[in-house]
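Lab notebook, bench 4. We co-purified these components, and the gel suggests they stay together. Before we commit to crystallization screens, I want a quick structural picture of the whole thing.
Request: model the full complex, all chains together.
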Amino acid sequence: MIPAVGETLKVLRVTAGGRRFALDAGLVRGVERPGRRVRLPGAPGYVRGVVEVQGSVVVVVDLARRLGLSPHDERADDVDDIERAVVVVDSSEPVGLAVDDPGDVIALDPATLIELGPAGAAAGLRGLTPDGVVLLEVEPVVDGRTLAPAGPVLDRLLAARP
Amino acid sequence: MSPLTEEVARRAAALAQEAAHQAAALEERLRQGSAAVGRALETAGRAPPTLDAGEDRARRLEEIARAAGRAAARTDLLGLNVEVAAARLGEEEQGLEQVARELRALADETARGATEADELLAAARSDVAAGRVAWRAGLADLRLAQERIEGAAAAAEEAGVALAEAQQAASELASTSAGSGPGRDQDAALDAAAELAAAAEARDDAITGLGRAAAARLAGAGGRLLGEATSADGLAARLEVVARPLGRATVVAQVVDDVARRAKQLAVNADLAAAQGDDPALGLFAEEARRLSERAEGAADEAADLGERVLADLAELRSDVIRHALAVREVGEILAGVLERFADPGAATAADGLPAAWRADRVAARRLAEARAQWRRTASPDGGPTGVEGGPAVS
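Here is the predicted assembly.
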């Protein structure tokens, strides 16, 4: 949802892979800690499995791995850490994003966002807030397309900030 | 009887009488000590079941505190979801945002309280468990001390009987006019008199040795008892320290109860917002808030009840422990009094010297019995009674 000029954008702040991200709250269905997870053999490394949320089966994507911020660790997969929060976002179908900490909801002034351009878009990133929170483009993150690793993009951008 | 023999006889009689008085006094004090230990054991016997019950209740309170912590995490997530719902519904949903803020504040308060209660209760349970172990060890020490005291009292009673026999032997010697009887062999009479006096003195020495050996044995028991009294004092002080944080933990239960009531109100507000808005998720959130508040209310009631019972148990236990410490100290002081009179700090008497002292006393008793028999034979050459058997004691 793109807010009109003068309107604020309500976003959910989360932490993943040691960095802070924001998601458009209008696309967030809810935040859960499912407790039980069914693994999907053969799925990409960033897919942690499926969980049940409010009666629906939801695929869970590890946000840090999806953005290339954390390596795929087979041993970590064996640990059932589904106590981590899952942010369920609305896409063509609901997808859960596993994060380290779900954080809170804040209002962003879009005028203060630093657009990240094509390099950012290739990594699923839309903009950077003045306090260093990265606004994500949800659709590219959940639709399975190949993404450029976000780490180097963010490091270059943060290094270039005054 | 020669003046020397008379003198020896009088001295033996006086020694025996003095020793008999000492033995009687020792026996009396030891019997008092044994009775005091019995009272202390009775008091101490009440503590372990109370400690067991207190530990069980503290464990249950810990479970409740942890459940409250999990509920706090769930409430926090619920608050976040309400925030997200409010953001989706737009600027006009100020009421819903307020609901979300309150939920998250409640969750934070509950989590802090639950963490504090959990830590306090874990420490209290550990203290109570340590106290129970020390208490049981103390009971075992008390029982051992009681056995030792009973043994020493029995020894003192037998020593008293033996001393009465020695005193009678000496009085026989002193009251018989050895030199005046017809047909009495003077030399034999003198020898028998001297041997009787020597045997009485030897018996007195043996009895003194018996007393010292008993005292050395008791010294260990007395030290353990005073240690037990000090340990009981420490337990009473620790119970007082444990009770204070438990009092705060029950205050946490009241906080949880308050949270439950406020969550119930928030559930109503969320219901209203769901009725006015389009988002069906709000109805689900309201339902969950209501369930959380009911669970919290039940847990708070149980925690408050348990908390009160634990505090009451601890107060009763502390009184018992203080009484126990006083009782044990009383026994320790009685024993200290006994040791003061009978222990010989200059002599290296082993704590296990009692069997040897008994053997020495038996030897001295046989010698005294033989000396009396010999004395009677010299007093009546035909072996008949001299009329002095069971004569009055010489004071």
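The first strand of chain A starts at residue 9 and ends at 16. Worth comparing against the SEC data before the next meeting. The mean pLDDT of chain A is 83.
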